[in-house]
Specification:
With 171 residues, the chain is mostly helical. The protein has helices at 6-27, 59-84, 88-99, 106-114, 118-144, 148-167, and strands spanning 53-55, 168-170. It has one domain (6-33, 51-170). It contains six helices and two strands. It has a two-stranded parallel sheet with strand order 1-2. The N and C termini lie far apart (43 Å).
């Protein structure tokens, strides 16, 4: 566990709050262009103002894909908690296990990717690569005490999630 100076703690706290806010928005389904429609409740029909690309999945694959996305979201929350506690080794391990390339589960990952348009597949692959980059940066930060690179990569991971959810919706 690392101890950070006051300035670094404040920067880390701000970054974690921002990531937490984005994570909360994703968890609540507040995708770009749809936040105003959340008040209509779950199950509301897609609206004309939702210009995201609808990606058609068979029902079972859709359920599995959504479960995978929730696992990724949980992993991001756990990474943020570990970073806030100064446990960068745990943050690195979580990134590798829950979001890294090794987190993709063989046939299921291939089945999910089969229905994704190329842009969606590219964003997913980017997220998994960034998770590996984050794991290395977090391990470096555990050794050096400098969390800037790890925070930067975590922010880019969140931006990748937001970009995908802003561009695509499962149908």
């Amino acid at each position: 566990m690392n101890t950070y100076g006051i300035g670094k703690s404040r920067s880390a706290a701000r970054a974690l709050l921002l990531c937490g806010a984005v994570t909360t928005c994703l968890a609540q389904g507040a995708h770009a262009g749809t936040a105003g429609h959340l008040a209509q409740g779950p199950g509301a029909a897609a609206h004309e103002s939702d210009h995201r690309v609808a990606v058609l999945f068979p029902p079972l694959v859709k359920r599995e894909t959504l479960a995978t996305m929730r696992m990724h979201l949980q992993g991001l929350a756990e990474i943020q908690q570990a970073m806030a506690a100064g446990d960068l080794d745990s943050a690195a391990r979580i990134a590798s296990m829950k979001l890294g390339m090794s987190s993709m589960h063989g046939d299921q990952a291939q089945e999910e990717a089969r229905y994704m348009p190329p842009g969606m597949r590219a964003l997913g692959a980017r997220l998994h690569r960034q998770a590996g980059e984050f794991a290395v940066a977090a391990q470096d930060a555990a050794a050096t005490g400098s969390v800037r690179k790890a925070q930067d990569v975590l922010g880019r991971m969140m931006q990748t999630c937001v970009a995908c959810h802003a561009a695509y919706r499962l149908k």
